[in-house]
Design goal:
heterodimer; A: alpha/beta; six-stranded mixed sheet; about 25% strand; B: mainly alpha; 4 strands
Chain lengths: ~300, ~325
């Protein structure tokens, strides 16, 4: 493992007229899977487009393998990109399309055909590769989108909201494929998402971005531990439960109909149980909930 | 190292690519080939091939017919020249371009494939230059195909082919030049219009409409009050027209300029200049012929460079 960052932003800013999309961010992305987490409009797409060289920074720099893609497009030979929106042609077979896209990354035709066949097998489209893309299901199209980003064997691939628009089954398949790409194929990944769950289940590292600024970054475990919360739903006597928890020194907040407790330790669960018994409340649900994105933002704001 | 005799299938897992990576030049070439093939319907269904084939037929058919007449009737036949040939086919070429040019630009934007292209090792300018030049080469081939056939026919039909070539060699650079003028025109305008819509039918309709509307407009603006025709009476009482080119346009001196409104004829005027022809076949051509030579040239350049610049800027500033 080298120490050269794959992607590096130095005091990177991007303004659109008066609007500030990114405000002087410093980021280093290294090998592995990195999640770029933030709500819509946080600056995730802008950051990706700067690394892809589709945009030029207002100030600072965005480098890929030490090169600026907006000045030298050749570095994109080692870069893959899967956009969020539709980007596939209809009346062409996946095999032909992938071969073309490999050539469009600088791979000679004979090699391009082999790469196309290989990568389609790896994303699980071996059988269907001679069918027209327009006949594919949403999940299959999503695989073709990923395949075209990988067909030229990039060093790092940028995935923009790779699970957007997928049903739960499709989403899990996609996340699994992303994990395989990162772990088995050894291709580094930066994926953007507004869903904590996506990032948590696939990424090694996480960068939280909001309002064009980096709020936090670090290993993913660090985030999920810190933000574990407990949801308590009772059918009645909710106030009594809150009072009983208070007597045990447990702070609560009410979210919707649920009592929410920030989990400090495993022993705390015993106190929660005792409090519910003491309040004689009928328990409907007692469930841990991994940290939500909003929690991170709330903490960052405070 | 394996020396086992029995066959076994291994899943080798993911293999990294360590073959050659050829960079931007290869990428632009691949895109060019893709554009060329797309325009001809290669690698697509049979339906996509019909129009290019029909076009090739229609563009070469007039040449074949002319050659056939020339070979049967002989040198004394009143047959169209290289110059007149473009008058016949430029409309066909325009029709072809109106329908096929959108095919090269619109699906990429409509389906979003452009966002995959623009993150690859090429610039937006590379993209549009590649697309444009692929189509330009096709229209150029179509423009030349008939002319070459025509030339071959004339040479073979001539009593002394070598003498014919010696006397008429100037026709070759002339039709090559005016073919390029026609191809440049019919490539750039439909492509520029295609860059502003995601509906192929709209683009084709707009291109055709521009030419269909401006032709009668020019006709009205240059229409004549009366024709000053000179007749001679034959002994049988029939009147023969000796001269019919005199015409007093209602718009007077302005008519020469209004004749330029017929934009579809713009490359035709340049072709007339190149062939040094006095084109008196129709009022518009005759009126434009009365203008200073520089004027139709400037007009043509405006009609090509204007849309060309629009096309270039549209793609340069494209955000995906």
């Amino acid at each position: 493992m080298t120490n050269q960052p794959l992607l590096e932003a130095k005091k990177l800013s991007k303004h659109y007229g008066e609007t500030v999309a990114l405000h002087s961010i410093d980021v280093q992305v290294r090998e592995g899977i990195t999640g770029l987490l933030g709500p819509n409009g946080a600056g995730k797409s802008t950051a990706m487009k700067l690394f892809l060289g589709l945009l030029t920074p207002t100030s600072g720099s965005a480098e890929v393998l030490g090169d600026k893609p907006y000045e030298n497009v050749d570095v994109r030979m080692r870069l893959g990109y899967m956009p969020e929106h539709d980007c596939l042609p209809g009346p062409i077979t996946a095999s032909e399309f992938l071969g073309h896209m490999a050539q469009m990354s600088g791979i000679p035709p004979a090699h391009a055909r082999t790469r196309a066949a290989d990568i389609l097998r790896h994303v699980g489209l071996d059988e269907e590769r001679y069918r027209h893309i327009k006949e594919y299901s949403t999940g299959m199209k999503q695989r073709v989108k990923l395949a075209q980003a990988l067909v030229h064997d990039p060093v790092i691939v940028l995935l923009d909201e790779p699970t957007a628009g997928l049903d739960p089954g499709g989403r899990e398949e996609m996340l699994q494929l992303i994990r395989r790409t990162g772990k088995e194929f050894g291709i580094s990944i930066m994926l953007s998402s507004h869903l904590m769950g996506d990032v948590e289940s696939t990424c090694d590292r996480i960068i939280v971005i909001e309002g064009g600024k980096i709020i936090e970054q670090g290993d993913v475990s660090q985030f999920t531990q810190e933000t574990e919360t407990l949801y308590i739903d009772v059918d009645d006597r909710r106030d009594e439960v809150v009072a009983a928890l208070g007597r045990r020194g447990i702070e609560t907040t009410i979210v919707g109909l649920s009592i929410v407790v920030q989990k400090q330790s495993e022993e705390q669960l015993d106190d929660v149980r005792d409090a519910i018994v003491e309040a004689e409340a009928r328990l409907r649900r007692l469930a841990p909930s991994r940290g939500q994105l909003t929690d991170i933002f709330r903490r960052a704001a405070s | 190292m394996t020396t086992e005799a029995r066959g076994e299938i291994f899943d080798l897992g993911y293999q990294h690519y360590d073959g050659p990576r050829e960079g931007r030049a290869r990428v632009v070439r691949s895109l060019w080939v893709n554009g060329f093939r797309t325009a001809l319907g290669l690698g697509r269904g049979a339906k996509a091939k019909i129009l290019p084939l029909l076009m090739f037929f229609f563009v070469t058919a007039p040449a074949a017919i002319i050659v056939l007449i020339a070979s049967i009737v002989g040198p004394e036949a009143e047959i169209p020249s290289h110059a007149e040939y473009y008058q016949v086919v430029s409309i066909l070429l325009l029709l072809f371009s109106a329908i096929i040019a959108p095919e090269l630009l619109i699906p990429d934007r409509r389906d979003g494939v452009i966002s995959l292209y623009l993150v690859r090792p090429l610039t937006a300018t590379d993209y549009i230059v590649s697309r444009w030049s692929a189509f330009f080469v096709i229209t150029l081939i179509l423009a030349y195909a008939g002319q070459i056939l025509l030339l071959l026919g004339f040479v073979l039909a001539a009593e002394a082919p070598v003498d014919y070539l010696r006397d008429n060699w100037l026709d070759v650079p002339r039709f090559l030049a005016s073919g390029a003028v026609v191809a440049l025109f019919v490539t750039t305008i439909p492509m520029a219009i295609s860059s502003f819509t995601v509906r192929r039918a709209y683009a084709a309709a707009v291109v055709i409409a521009i030419f269909v509307i401006t032709a009668p407009m020019a006709g009205i603006l240059t229409s004549c009050e009366q024709r000053n025709e000179t007749f001679v009476e034959t002994p049988g009482g029939q009147r023969l027209v000796v001269s019919s080119n005199e015409c007093e346009p209602l718009t007077g001196e302005w008519a020469k300029w209004f004749a330029l409104v017929d934009v579809g004829r713009a490359p035709q005027h340049i072709s007339d200049i190149i062939f040094n022809e006095e084109n008196n076949d129709d009022d518009v051509s005759r009126l434009v012929g009365d203008l200073n030579t520089a004027i139709p040239v400037v007009w043509y350049l405006l009609l090509v460079l204007g849309p060309g610049a629009a096309l270039y800027l549209r793609y340069r500033r494209m955000t995906i």
